[in-house]
Design brief:
The chain is mainly alpha-helical. It is 46% helix and 3% strand. The chain starts with a strand and ends with a helix.
Length: 137
């Protein structure tokens, strides 16, 4: 016996249910990725460490006890900036955020503002001959 239900059906063939749409899975996001430029920073950092650049500058130009960074640390980062991607002094902080400076030199990029770099350059200016004569000696 055939019955008209909009389509021809046969009683011996089981009726199929309409397909259900698969349920949407909620999106799962991982932690945000942080991409920073590395370039030659590890090489420059190792070279500065072998030359003891920070130590030479710190012995020639000591800082007060309350300083968060020594002049030698600032000069090392400034040398790295000049060798990797030279930027104006007022943009070194932005450069340090873009490049992997905190990871390589263990210095927060916010500490490398133009005032701090200016103080370091002012401190080494009178002792420049002593510093240049000591580097690599």
């Amino acid at each position: 016996m055939l019955v008209w239900l909009g389509v021809w059906e046969h009683p011996a063939v089981p009726r199929q249910r309409p397909r259900q749409r698969p349920r949407r899975q909620p999106a799962r996001y991982g932690p945000p990725s942080v991409e920073k430029l590395l370039g030659a920073l590890p090489v420059v950092a190792d070279f500065c460490q072998r030359l003891d650049l920070a130590g030479i500058v710190d012995r020639a130009c000591p800082v007060r006890e309350v300083a968060t960074l020594t002049h030698g640390q600032v000069i090392e980062v400034l040398v790295a900036n000049r060798l990797t991607s030279p930027t104006p002094l007022r943009r070194v902080e932005d450069w340090a955020q873009t490049w992997a400076v905190p990871e390589v030199f263990a210095i927060p990029s916010a500490a490398l503002n133009d005032d701090r770099i200016g103080r370091a350059l002012d401190a080494i200016a009178p002792k420049l001959e002593v510093i240049v004569g000591s580097v690599g000696a």
